[in-house]
Design brief:
Blueprint (H helix, E strand, L loop, with lengths): L8 E2 L4 E4 L13 E4 L9 E10 L13 E6 L12 E2 L11 E6 L14 E8 L1 H7 L9 E4 L17 E4 L2 E8 L10 E5 L4 H8 L2
Parallel strand pairs: 6-11
Antiparallel strand pairs: 1-2, 2-5, 3-4, 4-5, 7-8, 7-10, 8-9, 9-12, 10-11, 11-12
């Protein structure tokens, strides 16, 4: 089984969107994308990366503009197990408390092992103002979106889920980006906000 690094979302037969930190300091050579399987050990379609485009303003130290595109070759073949996801509209906004779904093969605890099975969990959206208060002044920019069970914890994305999709009403609204701990009752997960970066995606892919 190839080494799992990150998740991503299919937005066309040629393009995958993921987090920039997943492909930081990497080139396309040697990167493969697997689609159409809910297990890491399953078959699915495996295609090679042709090109990686990281957001020009991505900065690791502040995790802003944490988005990248992977162009694959040959293109993915769409069928019952492989389909693109619609991108969130430019004008969309989200009510705090709305439940979005995040999926991935990440660990259950920080010291745990990557899951062989694709997992999904629903997490409530939190306003950026509340998120900034919880992170005690760390800059939560307009290109970020927060979600999690504040005061409760127990359900969240974690290591290995990075770059994976946050979905609401069938549209991609976020990508797993960063956080403190996993499933902490104090700190929600922070995601890359797709609506704020739709123009960038369009400028690179035409989508």
């Amino acid at each position: 089984m190839s080494r799992h690094r990150c998740g991503g979302a299919i937005i066309s037969s040629n393009w995958i969107v993921t987090a920039a930190h997943c492909v930081r300091a990497m080139n396309a050579f040697g990167i493969t994308v697997k689609a159409g399987s809910t297990t890491l050990s399953g078959r699915g379609q495996v295609v090679r990366a042709k090109q990686i485009i990281r957001h020009e303003n991505y900065a690791r130290w502040k995790s802003d503009s944490d988005i990248a595109l992977i162009q694959v070759n040959p293109p993915l073949s769409f069928g019952s197990n492989v389909q693109p996801i619609d991108l969130a509209d430019f004008s969309e906004d989200y009510e705090p408390g709305s439940k979005a779904s995040v999926t991935g093969w990440g660990v259950f605890t920080r010291a745990g092992e990557i899951s062989n099975y694709l997992r999904e969990v629903a997490v409530p959206i939190i306003s950026n103002d509340e998120c900034m208060e919880l992170y005690e002044g760390r800059d939560i920019t307009e290109r970020m979106l927060c979600a999690g069970y504040v005061g409760v914890g127990g359900r969240d994305a974690c290591q290995g889920d990075s770059g994976g999709p946050l979905v609401l009403s069938g549209r991609l609204i976020g990508l797993v980006s960063w956080g403190i701990d996993c499933a902490s009752p104090r700190y929600p997960g922070v995601y890359t906000r797709i609506t704020a970066l739709r123009s960038w995606i369009n400028s690179k892919t035409g989508l």
